[in-house]
Amino acid sequence: MAIFIDKVEDGLPISVIVPLSPKRRKFFDEFVLPMIEANNPKEIIINDNEGSAPKKRNDGFKKSTQPFVFFCDDDIVMPKNMLSLMLNKLKNNQDKGYAYCGYYGIVLHPDTHPMKGNFCIPSMPFNGNRLKQGNYISTMSLIRRDVFPMFDENLKRLQDWDIFLTMLRNGIEGIFLPDVFFFAYYLDEGITSNTNSEKDAILTIIRKHNLGL
Predict the structure, then answer these.
(1) What is the pTM of this model?
(2) Please, which residues have CB within 8 angstroms of residue 207's CB and are 6 or more apart in sequence?
(3) pLDDT tens, 14-46?
(4) What span, in angstroms and rounded, lies between the C-alpha atoms of 92 and 86?
């Protein structure tokens, strides 16, 4: 196990950071990695060390060098122009800290997944008050390096919601790309292998950010 780093000189100024699970290695190598490479980031960092996904992401970030970072799960397939579209969006909106989009969920075990089949999460334009009520922004967002607050490794769930709330508290907003979607493949039975209570996770976020919902 190790952190693997691949660099290309003429790529986009983006570090793609992947917290890889060994059981998804084959799917990642065959479907995920080729589309990451097609997006032509200057740096790809794959962390298959032991530990939680937030720790893998943070450790990968510490090894990264580019001014923009994109945390890509090991079951995500994105269109080959997604990173360039996000990057252009941020370059044209210098006051925004990150760019995000919606996604399609591809469910391979509909009998055990709560959605009971494939679904679409279209997301929505940025609204800070709405974000405080619940997360609508995916981890798979392009983030300016200098505003990224690091994932909270003490949280058991909802770490993505936490980083966007933390950035909001720091005065950082995102910008939405309505016509861009990626595919999230739910390879395991059920929506997640995480057995921690979602209700407890929500209460933890509410207390941490003083949301008072």
Answers:
(1) 0.94
(2) none
(3) 999 999 999 999 999 999 999 999 999 999 999
(4) 10
Contact yes or no for 86/184 (Cβ under 8 A): no
Give the containing element (helix H, strand E) for 211: none
Q: What is the pLDDT confidence band of residue 5, given thresholds at 50, 70 and 90?
A: confident
Buried b (16+ CB within 10 A) or exposed e, 177-213: beebbbbbbbebeeeeeeeeeeeebbebbeeebeeee
Question: What single string gives the DSSP state of each residue in 143-191?
Answer: EEGGG-----TT-SS-HHHHHHHHHHHTT--EEEEEEEEEEEEE-SSSS
Q: Which helix (H) or strand (E) holds 55?
A: helix 53-63
Contact 93, 175 (CB under 8 A): yes
Give 182-202 pLDDT, tens digit per residue.
999 998 754 444 566 888 999
The single-letter DSSP state of residue 120 is E
Bridge partner residues of 186 (DSSP) = 107
* Cβ atoms within 10 Å, residue 109: 12
Instruction: Note the pLDDT tens digit of each residue in 150-184.
Output: 999 999 999 999 999 999 999 999 999 999 999 99
CA angle, 159 as apex, 46 and 129 as ends, to 5°?
130
